[in-house]
Design goal:
It comes from Chryseobacterium camelliae. By secondary structure, the chain is an alpha+beta fold. The chain is built from eleven helices and 22 strands.
């Protein structure tokens, strides 16, 4: 929001904060220890929605009332934070979201002292895109390796390898995962075959890719109530994970992969778990996740009307005018990247966030269909962009050059974390990245054979 000049931008209001993963709010951030001392709570209700304590904040005799509090892992004890730029009045449909913190700001100093916090006894409803803080022991999802191991240990070392290729044990012995298949392979040799590379090393969680995808593909703004009900429509999300309070290795004698109650805990009976609570000073890792465009996609086999199918260029396609909204595909997707249109958002007054009138609809991309109520939607790898590139090169009588193929997210990524290209171009950058030892697939063990791959994060810090 900056100083509030962007407060009336619904795209930015709905974009979740990279760390807290909350949208449509500003809030007082506080350390877990301070929250415990002051009796401040963040709790999940029975519908798995986050509620937080409300306080009055007083600084040098000036009070801002009814400020929600978010307990932020890693925040310095004795400090609080509150974002400016929210709570603007008479500035548009979305600008008055949150509370106005400017009364606490003297115009020059951003740091203030002598802060008094008083609980009101009320609770505030938060709209969170992600409510789990850690990987809960599933460290193969967002992989990372200490720099010392990366430099000194072979990635495929039999005992200590930090990115050993997945193998299946068969009657013929151990075989690489991608060599074992019950499905017939698609012919991907004719024309381009698209892959996307995502480097966890360079992803900062900034969200530029999320907004670029939203703008390019006419992804609707749904508002706080819908986000709170887990009905966000983003085709691309950025998962944020903190390191856990304790490592799984301290529990000796447990079978690998066993679900252990004392590790996980639950918010409903008040029991904390070693894995669902972040460390006091946690490490953070960001992981963009979109449709993985699986070559053997579980969603394709369950659609009763063949609304989702596989394309020769590697994309998993959606035919919106064929979809009847059974949502079987969402149930069968292990990556949870499909979205269901509960409403016709662009024609519904409930979702009039400055973009549902005739003028607002002029920002819609005419190259991408606007979906209607009752259909599933998801990432298309920006097929309208790749097809335009192919047709332009065809008209000019030339071969598409490496780097010309782009998606909205790859073009918007300022750190170069997201790379996109043609795997059938032997000189392409994405093919070089595919050969990197850090490359791995998300949930490779289930055999979906995605066309999106990730690179292990290297943690450049001395381990203690």
């Amino acid at each position: 929001m900056g100083d509030g000049t962007q407060a009336n931008n619904p795209w930015l209001q709905e974009l979740p904060d990279p760390l807290t993963r909350m949208s449509w709010d500003n809030y007082l951030t506080i350390s877990p220890k301070d929250a415990e001392r002051l009796g401040i709570e963040n709790n999940l209700n029975a519908r798995m929605q986050l509620d937080g304590s409300i306080v009055n904040v007083t600084v040098n005799g000036v009070t801002v009332k009814d400020v929600p509090v978010f307990i932020q892992p890693g925040q310095a004890e004795g400090s609080v934070g509150l974002a400016l730029g929210y709570g603007k009045k008479n500035s548009g449909a979305t600008a008055d979201t949150g509370v106005n913190a400017y009364p606490l700001f003297d115009g020059s100093n951003l740091a203030v002292s002598n802060i008094k916090i008083e609980k009101t006894g009320e609770m505030h409803p938060f709209a969170g895109i992600q409510l789990q803080n850690t990987l809960m022991g599933r460290y193969e999802i967002a992989k990372e390796v200490p720099l010392a191991d990366f430099l000194n240990v072979a990635f495929d070392d039999e005992h200590h390898g930090w990115n050993k290729p997945l193998e299946y044990h068969t009657i013929s012995g151990a075989l690489p995962a991608r060599k074992i298949d019950l499905w017939d392979a698609f012919d991907d040799t004719d024309g381009p075959h698209f892959n996307m590379s995502i480097d966890l090393n360079s992803c900062t969680g900034c969200g530029a890719c999320v907004i670029a995808c939203q703008a390019e593909n006419n992804v609707p703004v749904v508002g706080k109530d819908e986000v709170r009900m887990s009905r966000d429509m983003y085709w691309l999300r950025i998962d944020r994970y903190y390191s856990a309070k304790q490592k799984v290795e301290v529990y000796e004698g447990l079978k690998e992969g066993m679900a252990v109650p004392e590790l996980y805990g639950t918010a409903f009976n008040g029991e904390g778990g070693a894995l669902n609570h972040p460390a006091e000073n946690p490490d953070v890792i960001f992981q963009p996740v979109m449709c993985q465009h699986c070559n053997h996609a579980p969603c394709e086999t369950v659609c009763p009307v063949a609304a989702t199918s596989h394309g020769q260029q590697g994309q998993n396609h959606m035919a919106y005018n064929r979809c009847i909204g059974t949502r079987y595909c969402a149930n069968n997707c292990p990556y949870k990247v499909r979205r269901f249109n509960w409403f016709t958002y662009n024609l519904n007054d409930k979702f009039d966030f400055n973009m549902n009138n005739d003028l607002g609809r002029m920002v819609l991309n005419p190259d991408v269909v606007v979906r209607t109520r009752g259909v599933m939607e998801k990432c298309s790898l920006c097929i309208q962009m790749t097809q335009t590139t192919i047709l332009e090169a065809k008209k000019e009588g030339r071969v598409v050059k490496d780097g010309e193929f782009q998606t909205a997210c790859s073009k918007a990524c300022t750190t170069g974390s997201i790379q996109f290209g043609d795997m059938n171009d032997k000189a392409s950058e994405v093919r070089k990245l595919y050969a990197d030892n850090r490359r791995y697939y998300l949930l490779e063990e289930i055999g979906t054979k995605p066309n999106v791959f990730y690179h292990t994060k290297v943690r450049n810090r001395v381990e203690k």
